[in-house]
Design a protein that fits this description.
With 397 residues, the chain is an alpha+beta fold. The chain is built from eleven helices and eight strands. The strands form two sheets. A four-stranded mixed beta sheet has the order 1-4-5-8. Strands 2-3-7-6 form a four-stranded antiparallel beta sheet, with no helix packed on it. Helix 7 packs antiparallel against helix 8. The two termini are 36 Å apart. The structure holds flavin-adenine dinucleotide. Flavin-adenine dinucleotide (FAD) binds next to strand 1 and helix 11. Flavin-adenine dinucleotide binds next to strand 1 and helix 11.
Length: 397
């Protein structure tokens, strides 16, 4: 397959680059080094300006059909867009509303639900949290115990979710709850949507190992949810939820972000002792070999992304191929972080992000940040299980 841009794709790439030159500066680069937005008003304002610029350009939802306000881009164009965003160190600002619940609503939602939510998701007026995991249900999600009991035109929800990213900033939540405790575990679950500030919902912060407030625990006590807010049929929520998980995992273009990190490190390694970041060790023989290994791996990751994009272009849904790419790219990110950390020696352990000699804290925070990606969206072990059974055809253990 020819992986170079067609003339139309090259023109689109130039258009994206021109847009980024013009508006990329809104992106809050000075955010906290662990990547959370924090509550700094200036950072939040710049993020909103960045979001507004993408909305105005029509690229906030690249994969949504045009009839629903999306850009209707082909997989190849989405890849170009993601690549250019990652190359400029910016991300699309749509959040889980645009990337997960929006496309699922387009497939499974009633007309009333689409009218209620889609425009507000695109404008950023309604931000979403994902209520999937529970203390006893993560990898084995179908074991979830949060209950929704029908009472006339409402469900009464009781239970607890955990690791709920951004719940403290969200407006609504999409969540899985058990509606039939007697059915086989995958067949007694429904997907509900509701205002996260409904009476009976309480949100408690969980502080992550980089001291950031990203996650929360969310508790439900007799929360009343109208039946019309159920997405899909009663007790079929697992299958609706799996559509959503496919959207969550199909992050094509992630390899470019990894490549960018390595390129930054290489620039530092090449710079002389007069460079601002002068504490990185100069690459001697061993470093050269380690950096060369990382470079080979970055190019392998890129080829895995191309494979996924090729499947999507043919109208196929990547399955174990997405697991290969997710596993390899997230673990490569950790290897790059380790290489970076070792290059900076003791300076690599500094946490003060105002100090340029420690790469603004990026070596230490960057190292911590790479851990969570190999857990969220299905842990590395779960990806290996998928590859073993669905990719290699091995029997279940
Ligand atoms: C950054 C981040 C953001 C997240 N955001 C959200 C969110 O917004 N909403 C939400 O609902 N959840 C969220 N999660 C939770 C995430 O989905 C779970 O952490 C993940 O599914 C793993 O579940 P668990 O933590 O319960 O671990 P467990 O499932 O208890 O796993 C513990 C360990 O056992 C291993 N293991 C489990 N089963 C198997 C198996 N069958 N074979 C081999 N090894 C196995 C796992 O790989 C892991 O190493 C987030 C997690 C992270 C890290």
């Amino acid at each position: 397959m020819d992986l170079s841009d067609s003339p139309a794709e090259a023109a689109f790439r130039s258009e994206v680059r021109a847009f980024l030159e013009e508006s990329g500066h809104f992106y809050p680069r000075e955010q906290t080094p662990w990547g959370d937005m924090g509550d700094d008003p200036e950072t939040m304002e710049r993020f909103e300006q960045w979001r507004a610029a993408i909305v105005e350009r029509g690229w906030i939802a690249p994969h949504w059909p045009k009839e629903y306000g999306g850009a209707g881009l082909s997989p190849r164009e989405q890849f170009v867009l993601n690549e250019e965003f990652a190359r400029h160190g910016v991300t699309n600002a749509g959040g889980s509303g645009v990337s997960m619940i929006g496309p699922t609503l387009i497939i499974h939602g009633t007309e009333e639900q689409k009218a209620e939510h889609l425009t507000k998701i695109l404008s950023g007026e309604r931000r979403w949290a994902q209520g999937w995991s529970e203390p006893g249900a993560g990898s084995d999600l179908a074991s979830l115990q949060t209950r929704a009991v029908r009472d006339g035109d409402e469900y009464v929800v009781n239970g607890q979710k955990i690791w709920t990213s951004g719940a403290h900033r969200a407006d609504w939540i999409f969540m899985l709850a058990r509606t039939d405790p007697d059915a086989p575990k995958h067949r007694g679950i429904s997907l509900l949507l509701f205002d996260i500030r409904s009476p009976g919902v309480s949100i408690r912060p969980l502080i992550n190992m980089a001291f950031g407030h990203h996650f929360n625990e969310v508790f439900f006590e007799d929360v009343r949810v109208p039946v019309r807010n159920r997405l899909g049929e009663e007790n079929r929520g697992w299958y609706v939820g799996m559509t959503l998980t496919d959207f969550e995992r199909s992050g094509i273009g992630n390899a470019t972000g990894v490549a960018r990190k390595l390129e930054n490190l290489l620039d530092t390694a090449k710079a002389g002792p007069a460079s601002e970041v002068r504490n990185a060790r100069r690459p001697d023989g061993a470093w050269r070999l380690e950096l060369a290994d990382r470079w080979v791996e970055v190019n392998v990751a890129r080829l895995f992304s191309y494979r996924i994009m090729t499947l999507q272009t043919r109208g196929l849904v990547p399955n174990h191929e997405a697991s290969v790419s997710k596993l390899f790219t997230t673990e490569l990110n950790q290897r790059i972080a380790r290489t970076t950390h070792r290059m900076y020696g003791l300076y690599g352990q500094m946490w003060d992000y105002s100090r340029p000699e420690a790469m603004g804290g990026q070596a230490s925070y960057g190292y911590l940040r790479t851990i969570s990606a190999s857990i969220s969206g299905g842990s590395s072990e779960i990806q290996r299980n998928v590859i073993a059974t669905r990719g290699l055809g091995l029997p279940r253990g």
